[in-house]
């Protein structure tokens, strides 16, 4: 199938702001390719999300904006500096690519029409290229694409590489479009997506039959997006609203999803990164603690000293470690508190948490290294027990407590009302850095302040919220400046824009209305607390969460 057909669809989707229209365009397109191979449907569904690998995969494309610039410069004989300058003023590398390719005076005689397979395969190949000549090999792969591409095709190749499709299609729109295209209830498609974490797989199954979609389920080895928590307005209110509640200690560590398939145990973070190599003792502890079956369990890994929890930052050092793992293992000992089971010999994620917890208690042989989260089942008759657990948790160095509706299933990737968190400290938001300002005087070489943005889940875009400068010590100031260099999209005197990549947790005293920021609100007294490398871009806090915080603030 020709890439230009998909590009035509991208253009149509991008030309309307109405979600329903976008959905209709995608659904019609999927209908027209119903007779094509499952592989084509799979690839098209990924490319419609601007992806080349499914979200459960830990593979990543290996091409930077700099390499795109190099490729274009080589092909068009334009110097790299002038392309960089254009990028600084336009901001969208895709548009620049289109313009450059359309101005190309060089005639190519043997242009081969680009197919979807060619585009996705060349981009996928960049992932596995390493070693001495890797940059050149990658350059050739994308050069091959650009030299066969029309200006519009080139624009979307660039946008796919930079992971910014800019057509305003979120997962929800795609779920609805797949449901429409194949005449299958939205709930069935949504469920299959939640459990498989792969819309490509869902679409190919939908193309086959409704039965094939229903068979899709959670599979050991393929991480799924974690279920997330909303804020609790208060202990009594939450319990009264939920009825019967599993109330647990909230641990301050790293959430892990542990998969056992056959002999192999794999550990994934919240961002679905495979960190098995960095946490060998957790693999050992878990192998000891559970029967030799296939399973998926979840828990929080925490760092300890004298068996007491220590700061979250230590555990980050462990999770990111690639070398000297054994040395770090001695320096920063870990333990795990398990709190959920999603698969045990068969999928159990759709059973209520009350039952899943019971199963966990049956299958886990606890020890000093593997414990179950401290838990009480509470209802409005014994709110005092929850308050006691809260006090106990705080006194013992933990973060707060969680409330889970006893009858609720596991809802992957959803921040619903079935799981709430209650913490004593002032609230924070996880924002992505989209801009920055160089500092003044002694700090002129560093980014002294960052422009932080929230996710608009309707459009998948990031909306600016606040400039934050305080909270960074000298070390953080320098290391973050260093790290942000690779994400610079444009620079205009002191002002820099960044590709969204790095997430900061920011504390604040109050949310206030603002005309200055795209969110329509801003934060008073923002203070940067930490870099959140443990979460992914899709888990940046949303405008909906901001609204929820405003409601809580006003109550
Ligand atoms: P926070 O910064 O408050 O941890 P978050 O954005 O990381 O929030 P949320 O989904 O809002 O994540 O809060 C739930 C998180 O709390 C989980 O992702 C998990 O890491 C952690 N956690 C600690 N103890 C538990 C527990 N007993 N049950 C569920 N989650 C727990």
Structure write-up:
By secondary structure, the protein is an alpha+beta fold. The chain has 3 domains: 3-161, DNA ligase i, domain 1; 228-422, DNA ligase/mRNA capping enzyme (D-amino Acid Aminotransferase, Chain A, domain 1), CATH 3.30.470.30; 428-554, Nucleic acid-binding proteins (OB fold (Dihydrolipoamide Acetyltransferase, E2P), Beta Barrel), CATH 2.40.50. The longest helix has 15 residues, at 134-148. The relative contact order is 0.10. The structure holds adenosine-5'-triphosphate. Adenosine-5'-triphosphate (ATP) is lined by residues 226, 228-229, 248-251, 255, 300, 339, 373, 402, 421, 430. Adenosine-5'-triphosphate binds at residues 226, 228-229, 248-251, 255, 300, 339, 373, 402, 421, 430.
Unreliable residue stretches: none
Strand count, sense and barrel status of the largest sheet are: 7 strands, mixed
Ligands in the model, by name, code or SMILES, are: adenosine-5'-triphosphate
Overall, the morphology is: globular
Report the portion of residues in β strands: 15-25%
State the name of the first-level CATH class of the largest domain.
Alpha Beta
Structural class: alpha+beta
CATH architecture of the largest domain: 2-Layer Sandwich
CATH topology of the largest domain: D-amino Acid Aminotransferase, Chain A, domain 1
How many domains comprise the coordinates? 3
Radius of gyration: 25 Å
